[in-house]
Amino acid sequence: MAFDLIVKGGTLPDGAVADIAISGDRIAAIEPSIEAEAARVVDASGNLVSPPFVDPHFHMDATLSYGIPRINASGTLLEGISLWGELKPLLTHEAVKERALAYCDWAVSMGLLAIRSHVDVCDDRLLAVEALLAVKKEIEPYIDLQLVAFPQDGLYRSPTARENTIRALDMGVDVVGGIPHFERTMADGTRSVTELCEIAAERGLMVDMHCDETDDPMSRHIEQLAYETQRLGLHGRVNGSHLTSMHSMDNYYVSKLLPLIAEAEVSAIPNPLINIMLQGRHDTFPKRRGMTRVKEMLAMGIRVGFGQDCCLDPWYSLGAADMLDVAHMGLHVAQMSSPAEMRKCFDMVTTESAAIMGLEDYGLELGKAASLVVLEAGDPIEAVRLRAARLAVVAKGKVVAERPSSAAQLSLPGRPASVDRRHRI
Ligand SMILES: [Zn+2]
User: Fold this and answer.
1) C-alpha–C-alpha distance, residues 72 and 262, integer Å
2) Looking at 217-371, which runs of residues are DSSP E strands?
3) Residues acting as catalytic residues
4) pLDDT averaged over the chain?
5) Which residues pair with residue 40 across a beta bridge?
6) Which pLDDT band holds residue 1 (cuts at 50, 70, 90)?
7) What whole-number distance in Å separates Cα of residue 180 and Cα of residue 157?
8) Which helix or strand (DSSP H or E) is residue 258 part of?
9) How far is the CA of 56 from the centre of ligand 1 (A)?
């Protein structure tokens, strides 16, 4: 039997060395050694072969808009939101689409092949929704894009947001979003969580809310989100993004809160790059880290994925579509330093985030979509440490990106001719 593609000799995330054979867009065999013919062979020997990176929290309608019409001077979330408000009326369908597609090229080159993007619905034209639905279709052969209807200016605070959220869902947006901490009052925030969860339950959709993205320890909308998940039987389909206020909450309250989140099977998506950049801006010293309680949630059995959130937009002036940057920052900020914790950080930008997104076709298993990445690293922890080069990226059976080794040639007397910073001693 001849295959279309064989990825040979790679080390899988569990440490096994295997060949992966691909027919069409499917994984056809994973065995220690496959001798069959193939139209193309990718040599992965000595390198890590992983399922692709997954970004469970992104804003593709805003990406690559850095500096338009101006730069965020204070560096805060709130100035970012008002700056985005200035940019929104200037958006065109073509420009949003072009920037999104350019970003997706970056993503492919970095082995990032599944993205959940929020799309702002607080523009009565719903132009960004239309543009990203078109992008979703166009990139479907290589990236799985999931869209979240996101009422950025508040479901109730913005006069047409509620109606626009429904319109966006009718147009085919996949997930129900929200931003309870941005409503006018705590009570409105609570009410928005209830209504949005009811909409999701009625339509059989998942929920992913920006939730408590603030340093205010009294911002406790995650409690309502867990409650509504439980009440409406949405277990396993609801996610709270950011949850930064939990960093500042009273410990006794958190000891009650975490079991409620676990019981409702609500997942969490911290966004380490953005949280560490935007939060704590009102503090003098000591400054809070502004990231939620990752280790404590994991210890309670709560599923956690790391998101990138932003790339060159009103909120963040950096970003490179590199989920290993995200894992690296998350590992440091959450002090995930044991071998098991470091390994978990890799899972949080691959398998854990795929599970949050409900990607059933994801993973290095027989019959699943043939999407993978060959990383210049020996194992997942080394991949995070080095933010390893993506030597080859395969998307749904096709090699879509390749690059040479990042090893440097050395000119030092008596020392090796090249160095790649892999730990082999
Ligand atoms: Zn966000």
Assistant:
1) 37
2) 238-242, 267-269
3) 213
4) 97
5) 5
6) confident
7) 10
8) helix 251-263
9) 10
CB of 13 closer than 8 Å to CB of 346: yes
- Residues 64 and 85: beta-carbon distance below 8 Å: no
Taking the centre of ligand 1 as the mean of its atom positions, its distance from the CA of residue 79, in whole angstroms, is: 14
CA 275 to centroid of ligand 1, rounded, Å: 10
Please report the pLDDT score of residue 229 as a whole number. Answer: 98
pLDDT 10s digits, 66-85: 999 899 999 898 999 999 99
Concatenated DSSP letters for 118-168? EEE--STT-HHHHHHHHHHHHHTTT-EEEEEEE-TT-TTTSTTHHHHHHHH
pLDDT beyond 90 at 424? no
In b/e form, how buried is each residue of 208-238, taking b as 16+ CB within 10 angstroms?
A: bbbbbbbbeeebbbbbbbbbbbbebebeebb
- Cα(57) to centroid(ligand 1), Å: 6
Type of residue found at 61: D
Tokens of 390: 């993506």
Domains and CATH numbers, the chain: 3-51+363-410 (2.30.40.10), 53-357 (3.20.20.140)
Quote the ligand 1 centre to 381 CA distance (angstroms): 27
Residues 6+ apart with CB under 8 A from 293: 246, 247, 254, 258
CB 292 within 8 A of CB 243: yes
Q: 410 — alpha (psi -120 to 50), left (phi > 0) or beta? A: beta
- Those residues whose C-beta lies under 8 Å from the C-beta of residue 219, and which sit 6 or more positions away, are 181, 186, 189, 212, 245
Per-residue pLDDT tens over the stretch 193-222: 999 999 999 999 999 999 999 999 999 999
